[in-house]
Amino acid sequence: MGESSSQGPGSFSRRGLLRGGLLVGLGAAGLTMASSGIAHAVTGAAAEANGQVVNFILQTDWRYCGKCRNLYYAGHPGICAGTGYGQHIAGSSTGYGVPDQTPRPNLGSPFTQSPWNICARCACLFWPEANDYCAAGGGGKLAHDSSGSGPYFMMMNDNSSDINWTSFMPTPALQAGWRFCGNCKVLYWGGQWSASVCQYEKINGPNANNGGNGSGHAPGDTVYYLFMGV
Predict the structure, then answer these.
(1) Predicted TM-score of the model (pTM)
(2) Most exposed: 12, 37, 49, 76, by fewest CB within 10 Å?
(3) DSSP character for 65?
């Protein structure tokens, strides 16, 4: 994406789920929707970037996979390279929220980055860029599928300035340390980089782009933030 600064699966279409969604204040909004039999909570949250308070609308029910270390949408079984192309396995009980409507105010780059998408096949959050790799390809090359997904907005610190995001409200809290893999193009948890599994690496073998980490993700420089405990 160079790492700087829209459309998941028809079975859990964001547009259908979010139609009529509203931001309610700075705390949690008690608005629940359903589409195609899948419950979907819309939550309001706020964070602060260098003294500027920003309001977000979150899509909840995202999880961290304890095998590939990717962020994935739990409302869809997905496909995981770390389980031998079975389903993702939650690495913790923590739920994450991903902003999926334009922040208020929209500070733009380098504070927020869009459009991230959800893959209709592997259910991971990915950056739409050429030469991406989806785990649904198994032992072969297959691109992520953004059909049905709208844009997601990620809070970021690109290390080129003093940008820093902090929690403005007690809940949900912010978690820093998420990273972008320049090989398969997904968002993964950098705290478990050494144990991560990248689809690109599984197909092509270890290379200089993954920092010498066996079959792991490329060690991205940009730090991303997620709302956690939602």
Answers:
(1) 0.82
(2) 37
(3) B
- Phi, psi of 193, rounded to the nearest 5 degrees: -55, -40
CA 36 to chain centre: 22
Residue 191 tokens, joined: 């705290």
Q: What is the pLDDT of residues 34-56, one digit of tens each?
A: 223 334 567 899 999 888 999 99
Q: What's at 149, amino acid-wise?
A: S
| 145-176 pLDDT tens trace | 999 899 999 999 876 666 789 998 888 999 99
Of 186, 160, 191, 161, nearest to 176 by C-alpha is 191
Which tokens is 63 given?
């999880």
Exposed / middle / buried, residue 130 (Cβ in 10 Å: 0-12, 13-18, 19+): exposed
